[in-house]
Amino acid sequence: MSLEKVSSNKAFDGHLIKYKFKSAALGGLDANFNLFLPAKASEQNKVPLLTYLAGLSCTEDNGAQKGHFLGAASKEGIALLFPDTSPRGAGIEGETDNWDFGVAAGFYLNATHPKWSKHYNMLTHVTLELPQVIEAAGLPIDFSRQSIFGHSMGGHGALTLYLNSVLKGVKQYRSVSAFAPISNPVNCPWGQKAFTGYLQGGIEEARDKYDATELIKKLGKEPVHILVDYGTADNFYKQGQLLPENFLKAARDAGYDEVQVRVRAQEGYDHSYYFISTFGDDHVHFHANFLKA
Questions:
Q1: What is the Cα–Cα distance from 56 to 38, expressed in whole angstroms?
Q2: Interior CA angle at 95 toward 23 and 35, to 5°?
Q3: DSSP string for 123-172
Q4: pTM of the prediction?
Q5: Contact (Cβ atoms closer than 8 angstroms) between residue 9 and residue 27
Q6: pLDDT of residue 291
Q7: Residues with catalytic annotation?
Q8: Strand pairing report for 226-231 and 176-179
Q9: pLDDT per position as a tens digit, 72-118
């Protein structure tokens, strides 16, 4: 699992580096990721890590190039990890037929349906494999200080990976934030399509593991640090794909106040990286509060 450096670009006095390696979690396929290391990162000064999960049809490049995260991360002395959104090159029948299922639509779960389970294991890839590979390469990251954020499908991924880690008492991530997340996927078409395809037990299997609205009901008021932004002009919000109100209601019903779970409706913003880049700095600074504590 040794890393191959594909490219490196200086940005905000740090470096954005693209790496490639053979991923065991993704069935032996090549996997790419981007890693931003701020200038102050060194062997003697390991820095905290903020992972960004991108949305449907994206790659490891979208957030790195368009999210407007690097400047704030550089100032705060935080590394940024940008994984891909699915395995690539598995050659499974039908995996490139739709933009919202298969390639670039891995939904940050571990597939249990036999057709997909060898390769579509983005949960393991993001939470276990990438930290192990990065640490083995001797890169200056302090994995005891991690947080996570994401957009749309990646917002779903960030919320569910964070909430599951809290539920299991692992607390891998100190905080989570999301831009326009798919907040209640068992009740929206994107989620239902993904879960019916990837999971042997379909939507019912997903309910316990892969739905942020369901997961937050189970925490028993365990402390959390959650920030969500969505745009009121987002067409996917209007179509009922995101359902942030369901997540907010579940959080309030579970006893979480505005300090622990903050959901903000941003007037007139859509689903694009224009929206994400507007609030990118804000999200990085939010996580810095916990990563540097």
A1: 28
A2: 35
A3: HHIIIIIHHHHHHHTT--EEEEEEEEEEETHHHHHHHHHHHHHHHTT---
A4: 0.99
A5: no
A6: 98
A7: 152, 234, 271
A8: parallel
A9: 999 999 999 999 999 999 999 999 999 999 999 999 999 999 999 99
